[in-house]
Amino acid sequence: xxxxxxxxxxxxxDLDGIDSxxxxxxxxxxxxxxxxxxxLNRWWVMTPVTWKCPSCCRTKDQIVRLNKNKYLTCxxxxxxxxxxxxxxxxxxxxxxxxEVIVADAxxxxxxxxxxxxxxxxxxxxxxxxxxxxxxxxxxxxQAHRYFSFSPKQIGEFVIxxxxxxxRIDPIKAMQVWKEAESIFTIRMQMAEKxxxxxxxxxxxxxxxxxxxxxxxxxxxxxxxxxxxxxINKYEPEKVxxxxxxxxxxxxxxxxxxxPQIWQKPNSKQLEHLASTRGKFWNRYQANWVCPCCNxxxxxxxxxxxxxxxxxxxxxxxxxxVVSSEVNYQAEPMxxxxxxxxxxxxxxxxxxxxxxxxxxxSVICIEVLKQIILIRPHSQHxxxxxxxxxxxxxxxxxxxxxxxxxxxxxxxxxKRLEEFNLNRKAAV
Length: 427
What we know:
17 helices, two-stranded antiparallel ribbon, 427 residues, mainly alpha, three-stranded mixed beta sheet
């Protein structure tokens, strides 16, 4: 398909995940506003038709408006913190004040790297009105020239009207600035310290001849060139080596003895967990209990390899004995129960040599309850004799589910072929 043919094909459709000057939605907006065309930029194209500004929450059709050339303005901007500019300017200022300039390219690189740790937010795409509101609000409150409001802060003081320029609430803008000013002062002080360290060549940065990121980037290019990504798109390297050359018994995961944790988290540790890693702790009510092991939320909290205390509550497809089908909307359970289901499924898959999409889908919660040894604040241990007795059943279930999944894939392939044929016929 040529570029012209591709653009013509967009007249009656939108592109999933990205946008276009030539797509159906943009043409509809041009007709709605009786515009002569649309003036897009790269960020508008790289965001979906359904994109919302993270600051003002307007959708694209609420952001556009006619400009003086009678074109629809369709502009998004990358809003960024100015700490990189601060550190670079201070670094140069300190460096040229030295009797003998000792700073070099590595010193400047160190200074720039430290700037990222001082940034108040990540580079974020916002609408052009919100980007302008940041500059306007800074003038109103007379903020430091290197200060910038975060996307969230911008949303606190803009007065939003669809398809119009933002107005700014000066009282709220001043409140936001006053709340941020003390921390900004500390950030500026740290920026000065880092810049001085770099200018005096007292930094600790040591560059690598080749970074891990560079190796990954080059390797992915070669995987593509050799066709390896056609076999495994997401982890092509695993095609070219054996990830587990020294495999133990398929049942080794359940034959080790997980230790009993006797201590329990105190109130401060739980508060820290909730504020730093509290995704699951905050999502579930205090009276939540795991539907499998029946532990409450507190007793499911346990140590991990990386953290003193963690809580994970997740769901995965499980077998339903009543319907004799896979339940893809199974009730969430503690991570120890889910991991048990996943490992059981993987063991059954290894025994049969057959893969299925969801390892946990071979086991039902009723069986899962019978094979675990439950302890508070600890990983489960297992009743291996009982597991040995159910493995043949799980192996048979793997074969059945694999056959069903193959039929589903074949049906999906046929539907896709039929859809493509109908689309070509329509064109």
